[in-house]
């Protein structure tokens, strides 16, 4: 039996704790009797992109969703352990989830713009958070669209329906919508899996630009994508993280055979 304090050498931790954007400690997630996440402890670095990879059904989405309490919406889900953001446990019962999600935003697998104009897709959440000033709204809509690399394509059509955009544009609109609230951390669950290669490349470029201002955690089943864009990679297997390290190391010199088998495409 390993003691609780034994450091798993296959999971890196950050030397300078001031660079930790978010961390989980012994996180477990249960759906009824099914333990989908079995005690995951990870530190995510500020202004970096971290990929969560692993075979389907291993708990990547479950883990990601727990980071901003999306599992609250699933009745049978139960989450134990700590999720620390700026020294505060996001998983504590007294957390204002609506406010917390302003800091820890999320983009989903399928682009899910509201059936509203491009402008209103972004302004909606801002208004719900109390922003009324038209000039300020205009300005945030513009900067968010610029950051999501969509502005040039939509600036003359801001009042057209978001549903008229291509899939890749819709997904970048969803990214713009998420960053309009100026979160610190952006969670993305396979944001390019429903997109064609050109749109995928655009979303990847957007994420690389965004990491200047955001800490990004992304689930991807696309190995090339993980190695192209992420600084760190965590390999999930059956509800555990087997290996967490610099992306380059995970892909070229993994410490564990299972990781090697997975990244080289032997199973998945
Ligand atoms: N909403 C849910 N209700 C019940 N079980 C779920 C739910 N979502 C996921 N699970 C289960 O949790 C496990 C991990 O799933 P998931 O987090 O979706 O994995 P991944 O994203 O790696 O494919 C699976 O056994 C899955 O069936
Ligand atoms: Mg998933």
UniProtKB/TrEMBL annotation:
Keywords: ATP-binding, Cell membrane, Membrane, Nucleotide-binding, Phosphate transport, Translocase, Transport. Pfam families: ABC_tran. Residues 22-263 form the ABC transporter domain. Transmembrane segments: none annotated. It comes from the Bacteria. GO terms for cellular component: membrane. SUPFAM superfamilies: P-loop containing nucleoside triphosphate hydrolases. GO terms for biological process: phosphate ion transmembrane transport. The keyword Chloroplast does not apply. SMART domains: AAA (SM00382). One of its GO terms (molecular function) is phosphate transmembrane transporter activity. This is Phosphate ABC transporter ATP-binding protein, PhoT family. It comes from Desemzia incerta. The lineage of its organism: Bacteria, Bacillati, Bacillota, Bacilli, Lactobacillales.
């Amino acid at each position: 039996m390993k003691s609780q304090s034994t450091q798993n050498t296959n999971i890196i931790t950050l030397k300078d704790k001031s660079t930790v954007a978010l961390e989980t400690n012994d996180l477990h997630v249960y759906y009824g009797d099914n333990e989908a996440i079995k005690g995951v402890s990870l530190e995510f670095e500020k202004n970096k992109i971290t990929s969560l990879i692993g075979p389907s059904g291993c708990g990547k989405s479950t883990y990601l969703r727990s980071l901003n309490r999306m599992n609250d919406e699933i009745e049978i889900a139960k989450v134990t352990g700590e999720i620390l953001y700026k020294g505060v446990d996001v998983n504590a019962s007294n957390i204002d989830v609506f406010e917390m999600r302003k800091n820890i935003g999320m983009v989903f697998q399928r682009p899910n713009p509201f059936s509203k104009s491009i402008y209103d897709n972004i302004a909606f959440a801002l208004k719900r958070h109390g922003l009324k000033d038209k000039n300020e709204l205009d300005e945030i809509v513009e900067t968010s669209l610029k950051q999501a690399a969509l502005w040039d394509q939509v600036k003359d059509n801001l009042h057209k329906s978001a549903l008229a955009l291509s899939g890749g544009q819709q997904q970048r609109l969803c990214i713009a919508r998420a960053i309009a609230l100026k979160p610190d951390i952006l969670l993305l669950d396979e944001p390019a899996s429903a997109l064609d290669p050109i749109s995928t490349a655009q979303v990847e470029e957007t994420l690389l630009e965004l990491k200047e201002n955001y800490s990004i955690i992304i689930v991807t089943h696309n190995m090339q994508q993980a190695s192209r864009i992420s600084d760190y990679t965590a390999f999930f297997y059956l509800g555990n993280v087997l290996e967490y390290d610099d992306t380059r190391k995970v892909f070229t010199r993994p410490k564990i055979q299972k990781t090697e088998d997975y990244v080289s495409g032997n199973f998945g």
